[in-house]
Amino acid sequence: MKEVVKVVEYGSSLAPVKEEPVDERRPMRAVDPEVVERPTRRKFSAEYKLRILREAEKAKQSGQLGALLRREGLYTSNLTAWRRQFERGALAGLAPRKRGNKAKPVDARDKRIRELERDNERLRRRLEQAEVIIEVQKKVSEILGSSPPQEDEEAS
User: What is the pTM of this model?
Assistant: First the structure.
């Protein structure tokens, strides 16, 4: 007698129950532990862009341009953008640019403010250190019994 196992399949509605013999059960697929690498943005050099633009200009017959784009894995929008870049500034326009927000130029006044704030913080730390040293000297002089002249009381 064959052993029968109940297999539950979940669908869009309630889970129907089917009975299948043990021998006819589908084998479980092993889970692939490999993590798929995150795709990276392609960057094209100016020389590569120029070469593709020249080849695209030579493609006069029907289907040659499409074959070029398929072979290189490009889109027509790439050609359009590269043509505009080329018109604007030849090789300089075709060079890859960094994406995202552009760095703001540093103002000389901002640089000077940062320097002064650093100096101010450094002097503040030195002042705190000097005050601690003075307090320690006062306590040592009180312990030893030699009392330095009290400048604070005389000034009042």
Answer: 0.38
